[in-house]
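Record type: monomer structure entry
Structure origin: computed from sequence
Chain ID: A
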Amino acid sequence: MATLAALLKSRGHHVQGSDQQVYPPMSDFLVAEGIPTFNGYSADNITSDIDLVVVGNAISRGNPELEAVLERKMRYCSLPEAIRDHFLWGARSIVLCGTHGKTTTTSLTAWLLTHGGLDPSMLVGGIALNFGRSEGAGPAEGSSYRVGRGREFVIEGDEYDSAFFDKTAKFLKYLPDIAVINNIEFDHADIYADLDAVLLAFRRLVRLVPRNGLLLIGADSPHAKALVPTAVSPVETFGVDGPATWRASAIEHRDGLTRFDVHRNGAPFGRFESPLLGVHNVRNALAAIAVGTRVGLGPEMLAEGLRQFRGIKRRLETVGIARGVTVLDDFAHHPTAVHETLSALRTGYPGRRVWAVFEPRSASSCRRVFQADFARAFGAADEVVIAAVFRSSLPEAERLSAEQLVEALSRNGQRARYIPGVDDIVSTIVREHREGDVVVLMSNGGFGGIHRKLLQALRE
């Protein structure tokens, strides 16, 4: 929603918005963009001079602003409808989807196209560090959007629902000319009853790609690969574990970099170097390379762009180092994402003790349906700390049990603790830390400001 606000403002519209709580990095982003926000909801914010109200999918009946819009019969739409109608009808739409890796792959694809001179537009659900007021500036820069003059519009395709009045996936509105489906797993347990419901949404997406378009499928994901026979458009696959149109091999991690060879249809395509850790990010890079090739970029240009990619805020982002302890922030909230994050850290920081501090906060991670999966997800961590389950209002029968998770991890031979409060987590790490420790703080929310508190306490 914040990114759409900035895009609309770039088109000359006056934009304002409301939220119950805006936290970094998007709160900082909105301030930098000069977009006023109301803290909390009030019918008084819905004034008569408003032409269009974009209703976020977190808004439901009973919200005072929504009720005012409905009662006054003001024009409203969902976020994906606004994106489609204002930006996509005249664009070559490149939609990047999947349970994991959407933000990184979208940002990387947009950067490769930008670096290659295609001047694309971009909308992504995070802060991509290669973009900002002066593109190519230092890592303090960053943006979740770009307005270019080229035909391509690179957009993160979210399978979450669109609005209270439209429970279908957002990506079904994005008019894909090129669609990437990186992987598919069960997620968003608050809106999808089961995996079959998730698969139905992706099957519908596949059917939207035109015959002169391209569908790129992650071959290492069985559920994604099963979609290939349903496509009407041309299909290419990418992966590291078996046969694929685009295949990465000879993967090695050294000096904080990941290097790998790429073959296209079995023929050598190039040697690539990425600053991103983890095999999952090799898959993300393969997808971006395949898109870049489709739009006309050569392997040398793509390799150069990949080397210059700076990453995403809150995706294994180093937020600071204090007393020899490296503190990282990561958005991981699904069991697979937790596992991949910790595996990447084990590769990138060999021989160092890894703390995994996890806040079950998202609508899915707070649910018991992932209880057993989380017990297997923390295997690469030396120390595991589970914070309080954020959505304590969920019925106990549906709610993830942090205590039972810790018990299961302990039975697996791991050192794990349940520490509900942020201040107690901070004091525990400060008391027990050793020089060289790596602490990754995993949550899809603000996590009570734990990143700043931990660094400050370590320095003191």
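Annotation 1: The longest strand covers residues 246-254.
Annotation 2: Confidence is low (pLDDT under 50) at residues 136-140.
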